[in-house]
Amino acid sequence: MTMFIKIILLTSLIIVCISMIGIIYRLIVGPTVHDRVVGLDALGITLMAIIALISMVLDTKYFLVVILLIGILAFIGTISFAKFLEKGVIIEHERSNSEHRD
After folding, report:
1. Backbone angles phi and psi of 64, in degrees to 5
2. What residue ranges are annotated as transmembrane (predicted)?
């Protein structure tokens, strides 16, 4: 890998890390809960970008599994928070009246 590409990768890593500061601010101060959920999702995506850039700088492919895992967990977390904000519960236990008669 040439020196020029390493400089570009390190510069983009610094820029993405600086953008994470704004995302953390939105996550903490967000005026509504919905802003905090969007901030949490953006934090997961930014973390995936940072790990991808580190993987390119180190010239390894072993971090790709970690990126995939963080992506899956961020998606499940976002869906869970959205369902909680919409219905108030994450897991619904619906029972019919005919099955459980006292």
Report:
1. -65, -30
2. 6-25, 37-56, 62-85
